[in-house]
RNA sequence: GACUCCGUAGCUCAGCUGGAUAGAGCAACGGUUUUCUAAACCGUCGGUCACAGGUUCGAAUCCUGUCGGGGUCGCCA
């Protein structure tokens, strides 16, 4: 249960009661009404902005609105006191008996604590990675991969019907280059000296197994023929996708749908989607102004088939057909968008690199044109660059052969949990520095370690508890948790569902990482307080009720940590 | 030139879709350990939220403009 959402409802009901009594005018907009944790804990437990938001539309002073609301809120069974403060905040102080119920409920929910139904089973498509199937994933793909996966988990946990998807660009010119590169490796596998890989082809060693596989499967039969390309291309793509899936598996990422661009062209979907847009007047024949910025020698002024994306907020209209009559990449995306709409998705989330920023508006324009304005929500999450460092020194990468750091290199060096946590310890719009030395350091400077250490400490106490042998008639009574440090933790725990919901609505999984850090900090504080004040320790000799209560408390904290880490895709450590 | 992201403490960053006196960590300084994991904790110091306007009860947050930094601007994918 999200207690803040609960009290927002309580306040909304109170307002409606007042409207019913004629004390407040009807048709007030309640959408801006919030209930949130006050900045300063001395103000109470829940801060409500109702009086300030409603004052103007009601034609009253905030104070007058508050005076109407306070009596109704005081009568709520959970409130101990209601005060009006500052510019018109209504601060609710909850009864002491409220918090034990929160802990009890959290304990009962266990690994579901923090989950919600705010998604109402709405169908959401999260498309991420979608790297060209021409080689292994590099470190640049890492962030989007982890981000997309965590966002999908977060949305599932929040009650959305989520599909995790990868779009395979298996139709363009890149995969023909891949095929030519693989064909060279095939000839090499048959014993031919192929020399240097020509410029423009993919030089990486990872294509050698493709050549060998082709040699094994077809012998020399592909040498004499002219139409080897489609066959080699399909085989290469298939093997590259297997490799990419392996790379993703190393981060424990498994997408449910791998959607083929080629299939859209093959089954006529692209032509159909374009025809639909032409019928609605969104596609026309026309000319484009030359591109700004760098001069492009290939630019040619000609009449072409264009999507009227400027009508929907884009900078220029977008071409759908190349001069040779084949579809552009964007044309496939029109059909792909239609396909997603047809599958019933109400939200299309694209996790993209920052270099795709210019693509966002046309994706939104296409969805709007195909489904109607506002019918499907398109949210593009742009992940900024990851800069790699080794002991403070930037890791140099060049695009020449062998000098790029692969996703696998990073995962193999620091482990999947560290990669996942660190990639989510920044909001996606912020650039991220990733230092191999720092992220594996075992100290509080390293947030991954800090959070894991809290979890391990809890597990350690729970192990010790088994040896302590508590009496079987001991009872859990969360009213026994009265210390300031304990209360701080209880408040933090109570905020967990709200953090998850807010992160899900904002599509910002990084909020969970920061929450977990704060939670770990509260826990470490309590732990150390127990060093000075032995009565605050978790297991007390001959005080089985309080010991059992504190152990249950620890289990609730552990659920928060484990559930939060689980959403990030990080495995909690039970010892370190 | 256009679009887009960013600009918050000496450094790295949060800031809960507009709330009350702007928060953490690092660095600096001081303290805590016969103890359930000190791999930790507590305290002090540190701010013109880039700048200028606007919107309103109220702005780091929204709008406009300026400055500074990153990214993008193809019939590529």
Brief account:
The chain is of the alpha/beta class and 576 residues long. 48% of the residues lie in helices and 12% in strands.
Give me the CATH fold name of the domain at 447-568. Isoleucyl-tRNA Synthetase, Domain 1
Question: What portion of residues belong to β-strands?
Answer: 5-15%
Low-confidence segments? none
Rg is 29 Å
Q: So, the CATH homologous superfamily of the domain at 447-568?
A: Isoleucyl-tRNA Synthetase, Domain 1
CATH architecture of the domain at 447-568: Orthogonal Bundle
Distance between the termini: 32 Å
User: How many individual β-strands?
Assistant: 15
What is the average per-residue confidence, as pLDDT, rounded to a whole number?
Answer: 92
CATH level 1 class label of the domain at 447-568: Mainly Alpha
- Morphology call: globular
The helix fraction, in percent, is: 40-55%
Q: Which structural class should the secondary elements be placed in?
A: alpha/beta
Number of DSSP helices?
Answer: 19
Strand order across the largest sheet: 7-6-5-11-12
Structural commentary:
Helices cover 48% and strands 12% of the residues. The protein is of the alpha/beta class and 576 residues long. Among the domains are: 3-95, Arginyl tRNA synthetase N-terminal domain (Gyrase A, domain 2); 173-249, no CATH class; 447-568, Orthogonal Bundle (Isoleucyl-tRNA Synthetase, Domain 1), CATH 1.10.730.10. Strands 7-6-5-11-12 form a five-stranded parallel beta sheet, sandwiched between helices. A four-stranded antiparallel beta sheet has the order 1-2-4-3. The protein binds one RNA strand of 77 nucleotides through helix 2, helix 16, helix 17 and helix 18.
């Amino acid at each position: 249960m999200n207690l803040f959402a609960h009290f927002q409802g309580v306040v909304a009901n109170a307002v409606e009661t007042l409207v019913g009594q004629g004390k407040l005018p009807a048709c007030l907009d309640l959408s801006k009404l919030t209930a949130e944790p006050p900045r300063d804990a001395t103000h109470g437990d829940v801060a409500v902005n109702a009086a300030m938001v409603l004052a103007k539309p009601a034609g009253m002073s905030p104070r007058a609105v508050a005076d109407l609301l306070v009596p109704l809120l005081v009568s709520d069974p959970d409130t101990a006191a209601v005060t009006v403060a500052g510019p018109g905040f209504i601060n609710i102080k909850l009864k002491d008996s409220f918090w034990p119920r929160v802990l009890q409920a959290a304990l009962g929910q266990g690994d579901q604590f923090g989950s919600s139904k705010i998604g109402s089973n709405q169908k959401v498509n999260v498309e991420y990675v979608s790297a060209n199937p021409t080689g292994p994933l590099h470190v640049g793909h890492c962030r989007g991969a982890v981000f997309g996966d965590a966002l999908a988990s977060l949305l599932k946990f929040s009650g959305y019907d989520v599909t995790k998807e990868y779009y395979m660009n298996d139709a363009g010119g890149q995969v023909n280059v891949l095929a030519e590169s693989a064909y060279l490796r095939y000839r090499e596998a048959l014993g031919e000296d192929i020399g240097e890989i020509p410029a423009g082809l993919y030089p990486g060693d990872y294509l050698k197994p493709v050549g060998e596989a082709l040699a094994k499967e077809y012998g020399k039969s592909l040498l004499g023929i002219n139409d080897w390309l489609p066959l080699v291309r399909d085989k290469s793509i298939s093997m590259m996708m297997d490799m990419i899936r392996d790379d993703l598996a190393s981060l424990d990422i498994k997408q449910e749908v791998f959607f083929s661009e080629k299939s859209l062209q093959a089954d006529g979907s692209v032509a159909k989607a374009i025809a639909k847009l032409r019928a609605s007047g969104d596609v026309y024949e026309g000319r484009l102004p030359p591109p700004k910025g760098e001069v492009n020698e290939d630019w040619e002024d000609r009449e072409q088939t264009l999507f009227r994306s400027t009508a929907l907020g884009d900078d220029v209209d977008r071409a759908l057909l190349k001069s040779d009559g084949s579809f552009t990449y964007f044309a496939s995306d029109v059909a792909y968008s239609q396909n997603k709409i047809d599958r019933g998705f109400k939200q299309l989330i694209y996790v993209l690199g920052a270099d795709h920023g210019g693509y966002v508006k046309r994706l939104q324009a296409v969805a709007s044109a195909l489904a109607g304005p506002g019918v499907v929500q398109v949210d593009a999450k742009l992940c900024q660059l990851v800069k790699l460092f080794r002991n403070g020194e930037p890791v140099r990468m060049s695009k020449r052969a062998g000098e790029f750091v692969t996703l696998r290199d990073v995962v193999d060096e620091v482990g999947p949990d560290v990669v996942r946590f660190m990639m989510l310890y920044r909001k996606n719009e912020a650039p991220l520095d990733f230092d191999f030395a720092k992220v594996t350091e075992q100290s509080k400077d390293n947030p991954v370690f800090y959070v894991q250490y809290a979890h391990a400490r809890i597990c350690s106490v729970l192990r010790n508890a088994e040896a302590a042998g508590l009496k079987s008639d001991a009872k859990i009574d969360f009213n026994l948790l009265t210390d300031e440090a304990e209360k701080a933790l209880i408040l933090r725990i109570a905020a967990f569902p709200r953090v998850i919901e807010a992160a899900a609505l904002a599509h910002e999984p990084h909020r969970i990482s920061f929450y977990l850090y704060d939670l770990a900090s509260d826990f470490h504080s309590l732990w150390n307080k127990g060093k000075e004040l032995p009565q605050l320790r978790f297991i007390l000799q001959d005080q089985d009720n309080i010991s059992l209560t504190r152990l249950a408390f620890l289990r609730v904290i552990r659920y928060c940590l484990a559930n939060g880490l689980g959403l990030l895709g990080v495995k909690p450590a039970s010892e370190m």
